[in-house]
Design goal:
Blueprint (H helix, E strand, L loop, with lengths): L1 H13 L3 H5 L2 H10 L4 E2 L3 E2 H11 L3 H18 L3 H18 L4 H19 L2 H10 L1
Antiparallel strand pairs: 1-2
Helix pairs in contact: 1-4, 3-4, 4-5, 4-6, 5-6, 6-7, 7-8
């Protein structure tokens, strides 16, 4: 169920169906709250997807909380280069959508890291997504 929910959140957001992705926030937030597996090696951290769904709902406080925790996990607890790039990309997207003072500058700074990580790993799809937003 988790993998389906995570995949659906990302697919819906990329397809422009943010309202539908936002409806999945309670499901993924429950996974996070219950600490059901911090890491799924095929799709990444539940926290990242919770941040994505919260951002789709315009729930900026929860989105930022999830992304900050996801960064802590991918950088310190379970270092994972692919998700280091993905978490930063989605966090930066959230900042661009939120549009608070300083968000644009913070997003641009965040985009630099996943861009260089993605380039080093050959993650061309993520590079294309970053380039369309920068």
């Amino acid at each position: 169920m988790t993998l389906f929910t995570e995949g659906a959140i990302e697919a819906l957001i990329l397809a422009g169906a943010k309202d539908e992705a936002a409806q999945l926030y309670p499901i993924i937030a429950d996974f996070v709250q219950q600490d059901i597996g911090k890491f799924a090696f095929t799709t990444g951290l539940h926290e990242r997807f919770a941040g994505m769904a919260a951002a789709a709902a315009g729930d900026w406080d929860n989105a930022e909380r999830h992304f900050k925790h996801a960064l802590q996990v991918v950088d310190d607890e379970l270092p994972h280069r692919v998700d280091q790039a993905r978490v930063r990309y989605w966090y930066a997207r959230m900042l661009l959508d939120r549009r608070q003072s300083g968000d644009g500058e913070q997003a641009q700074a965040l985009f630099g890291e996943p861009r260089s990580l993605s380039d080093a790993m050959g993650m061309h799809g993520l590079i294309r997504r970053i380039d369309t937003l920068t």
